[in-house]
Amino acid sequence: MTKKGCPTGWELKNNRCIPLTKSARIDKIVFKTPIDWEKSRSGGHREVYINSNQLKQLLKNKYISPDVEINTRSNEPFIEFMKAYPQCEIQVGVPAPDRQAKGEVLDIAAIRCDSKKVTKAMKNDFIDTFHAADDFEHRTDLKAWYD
Fold it and tell me: Domains of the chain: which residue ranges?
C-alpha cells in the first residue's frame, strides 16, 4: 500500500485510486477495485469469473489473447463461445504484477452458463465445444473447467 492509500501501481486522484500500470488496469477491469497484491494470500494468482463486457475490455486492450495456449488448449473456444452467448461467464486467472512482469498472461480456465439462460442451441454448441474438458456438466447449468 502506498502512502496515499492506494496499492502499488495506483495513484490517488480526486479521492479515487486511478490505475497507472498495466497490472492495475487489468485489476480495474476484472476486480473493479484496487487489489493490494502485497497483502494477498492468493499465492500471486487469482481466479475470478467475468462477464462478456469485461472480456471485451480485456480483448480490446490486448490483455488477453485468443492465441494463448495453456495446457494444450487455447483461449479461442472460450472467447468465440462468449461472443455467441454473452450471457455466460468465463473464469480468468489473473497473475500478480510481479508474475506478469515475468511473462505470465491472463488465461481462461473455465466457463459457466446459468440454466435459466440456456437454450437448446446453446446447450448443443456447449457440448460440441467443451466436451473434452477435465470437468464437464451439461444437465442443468452448463459448466466446463480445464486443469
Answer: 39-145
